[in-house]
Amino acid sequence: MNRTAALKEKFSQIITPRKLRLFRELLTGYLFVSPALILIFMFGIFPVIFALFVSLHKWRIIRTDFVGLDNFVRAVGNLAYVAAFFLGIAAIVGSVLIGRKIIQQSRDNNLRPWLLSLPALVYTLTIYSFLRYFWYQLPEFLDIAAKLRGVEKTRELFLQLIKEAFYAPQVYYSWWYFKWFLVGSIAVAIAAAILYRKPLRSQIQAQFTLAFAALGSGIGLLIFTYQQISAAYMTALETNTDPGIWPQVIVVSAGFILLVLGWISWNSASKTKQNWSFWLRVLGAFIFMTGGWLLIGEIPVLMAAGDKDLWDGLKVTIFFSAGTVPFQLTISMFLAILLFQKLRGSEFFRMVFFLPYVTPFIASAAIFRQIFANRDTAIVNLLIRGLGGEGLAWLQESKGVNLIIAESLGLSIPDWAVGPSLALVVVMIHSVWTYVGYDIVIYLAGLGNIPTELNDAAEIDGASKWDVFRFITFPLLSPTTYFLSLIAIIGTFKAFATLWVFREGLALGTTDTFSITIFLEFFEKLRYGYASAMAFVLFAIILGITVINNRFQGSKVFYL
Fold first, then answer.
1. What integer best gives the mean pLDDT of the chain?
2. What does the alpha-carbon distance between residue 192 and residue 215 come to, in Å, rounded to a whole number?
3. Are 125 and 227 in contact (CB under 8 A)?
4. Do 66 and 56 contact (CB within 8 A), yes or no?
5. In the prediction, which pLDDT does 246 show?
6. Is residue 507 a contact partner of residue 395, using CB atoms and an 8 Å limit?
7. How far apart are CA 75 and CA 141, in angstroms?
8. What is the pTM of this model?
9. Rounded CA gap, 216 and 513, in Å?
10. Measured at the alpha carbon of residue 303, what is the angle toward residues 299 and 308, in degrees to the nearest 5?
11. Closest by alpha carbon to 392, among 425, 363, 417?
12. Is the separation of the CB atoms in 312 and 512 below 8 Å?
């Protein structure tokens, strides 16, 4: 009896009313957010996972063979193997960095969190078991359509095939593995909450789980990449060709390693006290970086073996982005500063400038098609003829705008300097005209957040209007400029609707951005697997641009 009372007392110390109340609050919160989490998974995460699944298969209307990285290799050449190799290395390095963070955090808080690595390992295995179940279950559902071909389609047959999809051997065992790991995760989570009642417990478990997941993903991706390269070499040996994958992977990898060493040497130079050590590290940084760039020069060779349509689409996208974002931001900043002066009629002009943004894009694009039509009676051609010039083909002109200017002046330029086509320039003009109003509104909000006392104090000290703009207004608008430039760059890489309206027969290809190239592969050529691979290439490019923009432009943002 005394033992039972002692156990009850100990249990009451562990499960206190405060902890029960906190548990109920947490449970209520999770129940409230669960619908949103389900929607995010169904319409945000699941489509990405499914697209990745499609990109690894030969998929033309229906799913066929698993082809691994073949679709990516067709798109970007052997660069796909290099990218997969570095993704694996990056995942392992990320796991090590998370581990170092856990160690530092434990030292700072005088903790011994290594017991929590066991629950985290179980959580990671649960995640992997779910992904394994998903990998085996999804094809069973997708193959139901193929099983229904050539037979009488009835409700009973459809339900039978769904039941068979759930009870396929690999699916059934994978589901049981996932259920047991899920139960184990819940059990070890409860045990960890009871046995390790210290601060930062949940945070450390999450960090351990992320570290294990990154480590497993990195090792798995490296093994998968090695298998894909080995298979490519076996195929090459059968056809008496040399794909040259391993030498290219080694050369590019060595180039990136040299760049990292150069960066480390450059950063360590400022920490040295001796002059000779400083100059030696700076010299070493230049040597490492130069060697790295020379070795990375192998990348264009890798890219040359990829899909020409893909690289042409990327080139058009870069032209489109570079020809719209700088002009769009410059014009909108200038107009926003003018409209911020509280001039007579400024409210009316704010509405006028914002009107193109709220106008349906398709309607405004259709109007621009008429303004820049290939007719003598088109508005722009009438204006040019009125000034003594000759009309242009505009949306049907595939020649580069620099080439057109050079020919009008009797000059010749190399192929790499022809610039974007005249048809693409029309699209750029429409894009700038459309988004300037939106940028003006955001800039006006940014100008409103700058304290007027700063401008007044500068003017009292004798600063001119230009000095106030150069040293106060422009730096304090940097958060707004950073936001707008990031959104604009991502938008140009994802642009589709208006570009599709502007497509003309004689200029086809010169206005086809990356998004349109993917659309054509998917809906016209019906190569779903290859189109999905191209979509992931575009995702990687946008992610890389975002990281670079955040690293360089984001470091120059000034906040009040």
1. 82
2. 23
3. no
4. yes
5. 65
6. yes
7. 28
8. 0.81
9. 36
10. 160
11. 425
12. yes
447 with 460: CB under 8 angstroms? no
Instruction: Please list the residues that pair with 400 across neighbouring strands.
Output: 421
Please name every residue paired with 66 in a beta bridge, in sequence order, or none if there are none. 57
In the predicted model, what is the mean pLDDT of residues 308-323? 86
Run of H or E including 65: strand 62-66
Q: Determine the Cα–Cα distance for residues 153 and 112; give it in Å rounded to an integer.
A: 62
Cβ density class 9-39: b for 16+ within 10 Å, e for less? eeeeeeeeeeeeeeeeeeeeeeeeeeeeeee
Number of residues that make up the chain: 560
Summarize the confidence of residues 415-424 as an average pLDDT. Answer: 83
DSSP summary character for residue 507: G
Q: Measured in whole angstroms, how far is the alpha carbon of residue 407 from the centre of its chain?
A: 40
pLDDT at 218: 93
Element (H, E) at 149: none
Report the distance separating Cα 428 and Cα 147, nearest Å: 49
Q: Closest Cα to residue 208, out of 130, 103, 131? A: 103
How would you classify residue 388: left for phi > 0, otherwise alpha for psi between -120 and 50, otherwise beta?
A: left
Q: 3-class DSSP state for residue 528? A: helix
pLDDT of residue 123: 92
Mean pLDDT check: name the lowest of 105-109, 127-131, 191-195, 392-396.
191-195
Structure-token pair, residue 491: 């938008």
The whole-number pLDDT of residue 175 equals 92
Would the pLDDT of 11 be above 60?
no
Question: Which residue do the tokens 């997708």 mark?
Answer: 142
Check the CA dihedral 221-224-228-230 and report its sign. Answer: positive
Q: What is the pLDDT of residue 456?
A: 79
Between CA 380 and CA 372 the distance in angstroms is 6
User: What's the pLDDT at 78?
Assistant: 79
For 29, residues 6+ apart whose C-beta sits below 8 A from its C-beta are none
Cβ atoms of 262 and 296 within 8 Å: the answer is no
User: E strands of 422-465, at which residues?
Assistant: none
Using alpha carbons, select from 74, 38, 40 the residue that is nearest to residue 55: 74
Q: What is the DSSP letter of 282?
A: H
pLDDT higher than threshold 90 for residue 215? yes
Per the structure block, which two tokens stand in for 269?
């130079």
Structure tokens at 238: 């059968």
Is there a contact between 167 and 136 (Cβ–Cβ < 8 Å)?
A: no
Residue % of the chain over a pLDDT of 70? 90
Q: In the chain, what is the straight-line distance between the N-terminal and C-terminal CA atoms, in Å?
A: 67
Q: Helix, strand or coil for residue 58?
A: strand
Are 504 and 395 spatial neighbours (Cβ–Cβ below 8 Å)? yes
Residue with tokens 């003309």: 504
What is the sign, positive or negative, of the torsion defined by CA atoms of 533, 539, 540, 545?
positive
Residue 219 has pLDDT above 90, yes or no: yes
